[in-house]
Write a structure and sequence with these properties.
globular; PhoU_dom; PhoU
């Protein structure tokens, strides 16, 4: 094996290591979101604390992956597809870290909602529904990243529109509850914050799917419609 082949194989191994770490981080974030939603809807105090405590693990993974990407850029000076891969990783872990923050926020809202003197907890059916969509979006985005497959991106963008509509519906319902009984205002606002966190998770999953299109196709598809995105993917 000559020196250039050795360098090339080491470079490939470095890129694969980074990709694997992103998927590990994504798996942790997906677990954090699922547990946060379960903690909110079931009132599981142990799980609430677990989600809040585990947020530092997500942060640590982001820092480590970011350091590895910086080392690859400095040592390997990647170009073309390899550079797009590194840029996609850096953007993806930023969105994953923010999803982790949103999961912790949901857990903190759950902690407030289940405080001893306030046990009114309406509209968890809708919360579960919107959460299921957002978690499915994240799962698809991670799968697309793992398989270097941009085809799911348009579907994820459409799901994000569905999440936005579900969130608007939850707002309308909570406003109605607050108008009917002002004693419900504090809890309703906390549920609203949790719903907003889920809506933001959907936004981040959509971003991740768009990065995959950029990585594979070299096309920046941010701020385009689902139909325009499908057209770019088919090119």
């Amino acid at each position: 094996m000559n020196h250039k082949e050795h360098i090339s194989k080491k470079f490939d191994a470095d890129l694969e290591d980074v990709r694997t770490r992103v998927l590990q981080m994504g798996g942790l974030v997906e677990e954090q979101i699922e547990r946060a939603v379960e903690a909110l809807t079931e009132g599981n105090e142990h799980m609430i604390e677990q989600v809040i405590d585990n947020d530092h693990r997500v942060n640590a993974m982001e820092v480590k992956i970011d350091e590895l990407c910086c080392q690859i850029i400095a040592r390997r000076q990647p170009a073309a597809g390899d550079l797009r891969m590194i840029m996609t990783v850096i953007n993806t872990i930023t969105d994953l870290e923010r999803m982790g923050d949103e999961a912790a926020k949901i857990a903190r809202m759950a902690k407030l909602i289940y405080s001893a003197d306030r046990m009114y907890v309406p509209r968890f059916v809708e919360i579960k529904h919107i959460a299921n969509i957002a978690i499915n979006m994240l799962h698809k985005a991670l799968d697309a990243f793992a398989r270097l497959d941009p085809n799911a991106s348009a579907e994820i963008v459409r799901q994000d529109e569905q999440v936005d509509e579900e969130f608007r519906s939850i707002i309308r319902q909570l406003i109605t509850f607050m108008m009917e009984d002002p004693r419900k205002i504090s809890t309703a606002i906390e549920i609203l914050f949790a719903a907003k966190a889920i809506e933001r998770i959907g936004d981040h999953a959509k971003n991740m799917s768009e990065y995959v299109v950029y990585m594979v196709k070299g096309k920046d598809v941010r701020h385009v419609t689902a139909d325009e995105l499908e057209h770019e993917i088919r090119k």
